[in-house]
Amino acid sequence: MTEIQPYVVESEHDGFEVRSYPEHLLVEVDVGGDFFEAGNRGFRPLISYISGNNAGQNKIEMTSPVIQAPVGEQYTVSFVLPDDMDAASVPAPNGAGVRTRVVPAGRVAARRFSGGADEARFADNAMQLMAAVAASGLATVGAPYFARYDAPWKPGFLRRNEALVHLAG
Questions:
Q1: Which regions of the chain does DSSP assign to beta strands (E)?
Q2: Same domain, 116 and 155
Q3: Into how many domains does the chain fold?
Q4: Where would you tag: which of 26, 102, 126, 144 has the fewest CB atoms within 10 A of its CB?
């Protein structure tokens, strides 16, 4: 079974939950294209990295979710590295533009939904998330981003997707 990034649910609200995430590691790459193309373009160099295209030629277990965040006219696509890895043990990427990054512990608001992972579905859920968070009186930091937990061949009604946004404080 695929390891899922650990978090603790702090509270549940109408339309979202507040989570705290521990410090974690990402391997990521910036890619252009529309939402769908960017997800595909970003996936390839990241799967190559965890398959051994790294300085140590180490194979790294796939985890979930795969994260996609808008950054200007591009997207940053990220894999969460296994929880038992630390910054000192992460092999340097060989692929152009691929990098690793330590993400400090923090809080996010998350809206979970099923179905296909297309841009319209994510945009709609991001809008609903932002409205619900604002109505609750919580302050956000940055733009919403998206998480996919399941393989593309899993039936849409069984897929786990999320719209997330960082919370202030």
A1: 3-4, 8-13, 16-21, 24-31, 63-64, 66-71, 74-80, 99-103, 106-113, 140-148, 161-167
A2: yes
A3: 2
A4: 102
Count the neighbouring beta carbons within 10 Å of the beta carbon of residue 165: 20
Domain identity same for 90 and 66:
yes
Quote the CA–CA distance of 62 and 82 in Å, as a whole number: 8
Measuring CA to CA, how many Å separate 6 from each of 23, 27, 64?
Answer: 10, 16, 10
Q: What is the CATH number of the domain that holds 83?
A: 3.20.80.10
Closest C-alpha to 111, from 94, 132, 83:
132
Q: What confidence score (pLDDT) does residue 155 get?
A: 87
Q: Note if the pTM is more than 0.85.
A: yes
Residues 92 and 30 in one domain: yes
Predicted confidence (pLDDT) per residue in 83-124, tens digit: 999 999 899 999 899 999 999 999 999 999 998 878 899 999
pLDDT at 1 over 90: no
